[in-house]
Amino acid sequence: MRRDHFTVDVESDHDGTPTISIDYDGPADGLRERLTTGTDGTLDAGEIDVVFRRQADSDGGVLSLTNRLTGEFVLEVSADTDDVTALVSAAEGREDDGQYEVRLTDSDGESLVYGKRTLLVYDHDGSLLRQRSLIPGGVEL
Q: Which helix (H) or strand (E) holds 90?
């Protein structure tokens, strides 16, 4: 799936749950196929990792969702660094240990919502930026 099939909107206001909304407008079954497990179920929140890689000399980067069990990419979408930083700050400021949501909406208008607590942020060289990431207490990397 191509990045241009996705659009992202990051909502980080402090009144609601910070949310990464990703809309997919590609072939109808494309996204659903990537979210299907080997037993024809749908990947749950514990089976998906969220990562943001900053790009050098840019205000943006690449937001990725991967299948934690296989390491395969579910999707990649271009995102603004300031939006991701604001989401991390908003999630850190919540009393529920940094909870945020990822909302995936497919080309049929059907949505899946994943409650997440971890969002790893890397610089353009691939080094983890711990201070800019959401890493729950007790988690070691």
A: helix 81-92
Dump strand ranges (E) for 12-130: 19-24, 48-54, 60-67, 73-80, 100-105, 111-116, 120-122
Please list the residues that pair with 63 across neighbouring strands.
Answer: 52, 77
* pLDDT in 10s for each residue of the chain, 141 residues: 688 899 999 998 767 899 999 999 988 788 888 888 877 789 999 999 999 999 998 889 999 999 998 899 999 999 999 999 999 999 998 877 789 999 999 989 999 999 999 999 999 999 999 999 999 876 665
- Going by the DSSP 8-state scheme, the letter that residue 30 receives in this structure is H
C-beta of residue 52 within 8 angstroms of C-beta of residue 120: yes
Among residues 127, 117, 137, the alpha carbon closest in space to that of 49 is found at 117
Kindly report the backbone phi and psi dihedral angles of residue 92, in degrees, each rounded to the nearest multiple of 5, phi listed first. -65, -30
